[in-house]
Amino acid sequence: MPSQNGPTNQAPKPLSLSLLLVSFMALVSTSAFSDTLRIATDEWCPYDCIASQNQGKVGYLGDLLVETLEARGHKVEFVEVSYSRGLQLVREGKLDGTMACFREEAPDFVYPDFALGKSNSTFFSHKDSNWRYTGKESLEQAELIGIIKGYDYVDPTVMDYLNQTPDNVLAITGEKPLERLLEMLINGRLTAVIEDKSVLEYKAQQMGKADQLKVSGITDVVIDVYTSFSPQNPNSVEYAQIVSEETLKMREDGRLQTLLDRYGIQDWQAQ
Fold first, then answer.
1. DSSP readout, 57-117?
2. Domain limits of the chain?
3. What does the pLDDT read at residue 33?
4. Are 100 and 117 in contact (CB under 8 A)?
5. What is the pTM of this model?
6. pLDDT in tens, 73-90
7. Residue 202 carries which DSSP code?
8. Superfamily of domain 27-117+225-270
9. For residues 86 and 49, what is the distance between their CA atoms, to the nearest angstrom?
10. Residue 211, SS3 per DSSP
């Protein structure tokens, strides 16, 4: 028996393998897998909304990112930046992801297992206008068509015409471009504006101008909308998998439709 007054001179016991493993996993959990993701956001409501312009709403994709990633311990921070600049920053690894994009525009990004929305470019005109989109000839006959500079409106017929930069197309940039285009349309300065149907209807309703507009043509192409993650971030595959798994859980238990109800839209899977 060792003396109660003197040193015991006992060698320290080695840590068990299981304790070392638990310590390592705790360290990993608080470093690589408990991140704050910086996500590019632009004004494309209801998919992607700038909170300061929408009574704090960040869009259904923003809400979905927060709910799915926070379920696994991550945090999400939104960074306001133009769409094209956001894609560049995500590609360079300076941001962790983009809230909404088309896979065709960034095939090198990391994506969830399935799309998180669908988009269809639609022409809108003043309610009293006789103009209708029926193809290339109708585009040529329009006095002035409003678009947002740098946007891909997906439909080949439309994009082939816009890429020729004809004189009857006004491409604008800067702050609140869609809102400015709608004001010009309502004031008779434009024949038509083209935009995703849900986006334009949401903005017109928000502006209190929905009753002054009408659909004047729908393009043929419906394209999937995705949330995406940076190809430069080694954890992007994990983030994308989390979004996939947690979204399916939300769809099954009804939380997804509850989230979509905040924006007055239905589950894209049913469309």
1. ---HHHHHHHHHHHTTT-EEEEEE--HHHHHHHHHHTSSSEEEEE-GGG-TTSB--SS-SE
2. 27-117+225-270, 119-223
3. 55
4. yes
5. 0.81
6. 999 999 999 888 999 999
7. H
8. Periplasmic binding protein-like II (3.40.190.10)
9. 14
10. helix
